[in-house]
Amino acid sequence: MHDQHEQLGPPRAFVARMRERRRRHTHTPTERDDPARADGAEVRVESSTTWWAWLCGAASCVVEIGSAGGGHTRAGAGAARGDYIVVEGDRDSAEATRRHLHLDGLDRAHVHCPTGDGATALLDLAGPLLTGCDLVRFDLTGTGAATLPQLLPLVEQRRPIVFLHGYHRCSSLDQLLERLVGRGFVRLSLSDGLRSSCSHPGLAGSPTVLLVPAEQCRNLPRRQTRAATDTDPADDGHTPARLVG
After folding, report:
1. What is the C-alpha to C-alpha distance for residues 164 and 139, in angstroms, rounded to an integer?
2. Nearest to 165 by CA among 207, 202, 213
3. Whole-structure pTM value
4. Ramachandran angles phi, psi of 222, nearest 5°
5. What DSSP element (H or E) covers 188?
6. CA-to-CA distance for 19 and 15, rounded, in angstroms?
7. Which pLDDT value is given to residue 241?
8. How far apart are alpha carbons 194 and 237 in whole angstroms?
9. What is the pLDDT of residues 140-185, one digit of tens each?
10. What Cα–Cα distance (Å) separates residue 169 from each residue in 28, 65, 129, 140?
11. What's the distance, CA 240 to chain centroid?
12. DSSP single-letter state for residue 62
C-alpha cells in the first residue's frame, strides 16, 4: 500500500493536452539561436511550463515581465483565453519574443517594451498593465528581477497570482516573499526535482515559486496521487507540484 499525500497541480487531462500540442508543434532546443523549425523533434514538457499554461487558461488577463520568447511564454500564450501581455526590457528582446510567438501562430499576444531607457521607463510601462491583470509572471533571470521590488506595492494592492521563475534564495528576494506572505499570500513551491530552463549557472535547478492570494487557493485543483518516490507512467515522471509551506 502506497502512502497517499495531497498534491496540487493541473489536472491530468490538461497535462496530456499540453504534451500532445507540443508533439504536434515543436522547435529545436537551440531555437533562440536558430528559430528554424524541426518537424518531429520532441520537446519535453516541464512541470513549471504546464503549471503556467494551466494558470493562463484560467486567468482573464495575464502579464509576463521578461521572457525573450521562451517556452513559458509560448505555452502560456497558447493556453490563454483572455489577454496575454508580455513586457520586455528593450526593443531587441521584444522583437525576439514577437518572432517566437509568430512562429507558433500566437500573434494575438501583445508584446511591449519601454520607449525610453532605464528602470523608470520600464516601470512606467509595466505598472499600468499590472493594474488590470489577475496573473503575473516575473522572470527573475532577467527583466523581472529589476522590476519586482518596485512593483511589489501594486501586487499587494491588486492581488494577482504571482509566478516567479528562476527563484534563488537570497536575502532581498526572501524579504520580498515574506512581505507578501505577511499580506495574505500563500507561498507554494514546485517540486525540488524540477529542472530549471534558465541559462544562468548560479540558478540551475532553482525552483519555481507561486504566491497565491489566500482567497484564491480554493480555486486551485487538488488530487490524491501516489507517493513522490513512485513514478506514475501517466505523468511521464513529471508529477505536478506538492503543496508546501
Report:
1. 6
2. 207
3. 0.69
4. -125, 150
5. strand 185-189
6. 6
7. 38
8. 11
9. 887 888 888 899 999 999 999 999 887 776 778 888 889 999 999 9
10. 31, 20, 28, 11
11. 14
12. E
Nearest to 223, CA basis, from 1, 50, 2, 10: 10
The grid coordinates listed for 24 are 504536434
Measure the CA–CA gap between 97 and 111, rounded to whole angstroms: 7
d(CA 187, CA 167): 12
* 9, pLDDT greater than 60: no
Cell 524579504 maps to which residue?
A: 175
DSSP 1-43: ----EEEE---HHHHHHHHHHHHHS-B-TTTTT---B-TT---
Whether the Cβ atoms of residue 173 and residue 101 lie closer than 8 Å to each other = no
Residue count (the chain): 245
Alpha-carbon span 125 to 118, nearest angstrom: 11
Give the position of cell 493594474: 131
Going along the chain from its start, the domains and CATH numbers come out as: 47-216 (3.40.50.150)
> What would the pLDDT profile of 36-49 be if each residue is shown by its tens digit?
333 333 333 346 78
Cβ neighbours for 70, distance < 8 A, ≥ 6 positions apart: 32, 100, 139, 197
Q: Are 35 and 99 in contact (CB under 8 A)?
A: yes
pLDDT tens-digit series, residues 220-237: 755 433 333 223 333 333
- Residue type at position 56: C
Rounded Cα gap, residues 59 and 135, in angstroms: 6
